[in-house]
Design brief:
about 30% helix; three-stranded antiparallel β-sheet; alpha+beta
Length: about 55
Amino acid sequence: MICFPLTTLNEKKSFLNEALEGDYTLFFEHDPVYECCNLKETERGIRPNNFFRLDEL
């Protein structure tokens, strides 16, 4: 298996910027504690803002 970690980091950064600008709700089907979150810009970069359940939308 060939890995390209720098490509992965750039794609993640691009996606998080798009999600922040588009006010996306991120859904974590693998996470038993946090179902969803939205994002905010901080001095340390893009971070989760609010965590919530999908049925709260």
